[in-house]
């Protein structure tokens, strides 16, 4: 009877600490994961998730999130949702629906409102200042508008061997209004099957979705690779394919966990991630890079 959680980026640490306690006390993977991601969404100083996330080119904070239950394979997702406090909870709520499980824009906002979710202006003063500065730089120095983006993604295993996966992000800084990344797309930004394991991705969504990275990683685990081998192989192969066919690859990372609590990470760039395992139940931050 094993339990644990793995998450992308250092920003997940406080959330993972919460989740680790919950899992130890017997909470479900879904509850632990939702609480952990909410903690990241609520913290105003993370510039790429929830409150404080960086806006699109119109100065609006549009958020993507998804939730997946690894027992029933239920999925819920929102894309480009504005002015709601916890997109992960709205995504989880949608995962209990039979139809209309992935809503975007105004439709997602109407659904959230009807179902009693809390409205909140997600644009902080700080995010607005960063946006103002960037707009000036883009005009004056002809810089690429697309910069700064990190998704919080987590895979969680509970004491009953149930698993859940989830993601939440404001996506690409300065994205076009209506742009949706990989994070709410099943198989690209996340995938979990309690009988195998789960994976979540971070990096340039436009490239991650070209290879359905999370699903590929879970499939490799199913074929018998260890989570570490699966994560390394899926990232390496997608990166190579992009390089060969397109001459370039964006930054791509994936973290995964199998249904025994063994975990792995693959990346083509230096990136941080957080793991808490049953062994000591103390979340630790690790740095990964393309060479192991
Ligand atoms: C996106 N994959 O919207 C997200 C952003 C991200 O590290 O994770 N960046 O494309």
UniProtKB/TrEMBL annotation:
<dbReference type="InterPro" id="IPR029055">
    <property type="entry name" value="Ntn_hydrolases_N"/>
</dbReference>
<feature type="site" description="Cleavage; by autolysis">
    <location>
        <begin position="150"/>
        <end position="151"/>
    </location>
</feature>
<dbReference type="GO" id="GO:0016811">
    <property type="term" value="F:hydrolase activity, acting on carbon-nitrogen (but not peptide) bonds, in linear amides"/>
</dbReference>
<dbReference type="InterPro" id="IPR000246">
    <property type="entry name" value="Peptidase_T2"/>
</dbReference>
<dbReference type="GO" id="GO:0005737">
    <property type="term" value="C:cytoplasm"/>
</dbReference>
<dbReference type="Pfam" id="PF01112">
    <property type="entry name" value="Asparaginase_2"/>
</dbReference>
<feature type="active site" description="Nucleophile">
    <location>
        <position position="151"/>
    </location>
</feature>
<feature type="binding site">
    <location>
        <begin position="202"/>
        <end position="205"/>
    </location>
    <ligand>
        <name>substrate</name>
    </ligand>
</feature>
<protein>
    <submittedName>
        <fullName>Isoaspartyl peptidase</fullName>
    </submittedName>
</protein>
<feature type="binding site">
    <location>
        <begin position="179"/>
        <end position="182"/>
    </location>
    <ligand>
        <name>substrate</name>
    </ligand>
</feature>
């Amino acid at each position: 009877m094993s339990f644990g959680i793995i998450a992308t980026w250092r920003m997940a640490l406080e959330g993972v600490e919460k989740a680790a306690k919950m899992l130890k006390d017997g909470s479900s993977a879904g509850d632990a994961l939702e609480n952990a991601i909410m903690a990241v969404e609520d913290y105003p100083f993370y510039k790429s998730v929830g409150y404080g996330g960086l806006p699109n080119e119109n100065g609006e904070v549009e958020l993507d999130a998804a939730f997946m239950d690894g027992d029933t394979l239920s999925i819920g997702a929102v894309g480009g949702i504005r002015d709601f406090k916890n997109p992960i909870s709205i995504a989880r709520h949608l995962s209990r629906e039979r139809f209309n499980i992935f809503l975007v824009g105004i439709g997602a906002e109407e659904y959230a409102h009807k179902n009693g979710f809390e409205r909140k202006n997600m644009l902080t003063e700080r995010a607005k200042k960063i946006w103002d500065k960037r707009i000036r730089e883009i005009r004056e120095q002809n810089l690429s508008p697309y910069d700064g983006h990190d998704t919080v993604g987590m895979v969680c295993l509970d004491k009953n061997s149930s698993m859940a996966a989830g993601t939440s992000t404001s996506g690409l800084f300065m994205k076009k209004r209506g742009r949706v990344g990989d994070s709410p797309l099943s198989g690209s930004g996340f995938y979990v099957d309690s009988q195998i394991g789960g994976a979540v991705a971070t990096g340039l969504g436009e490239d991650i979705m070209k290879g359905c990275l999370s699903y590929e990683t879970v499939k490799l685990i199913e074929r018998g690779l260890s989570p570490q081998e699966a994560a390394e192989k899926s990232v390496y192969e997608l990166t190579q394919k992009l390089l060969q066919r397109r001459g370039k690859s964006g930054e791509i990372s994936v973290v995964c966990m199998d249904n025994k609590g063994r975990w792995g990470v693959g990346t083509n760039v230096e990136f941080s991630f957080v793991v808490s395992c049953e062994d000591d139940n103390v979340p630790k931050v690790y740095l990964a890079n393309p060479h192991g």
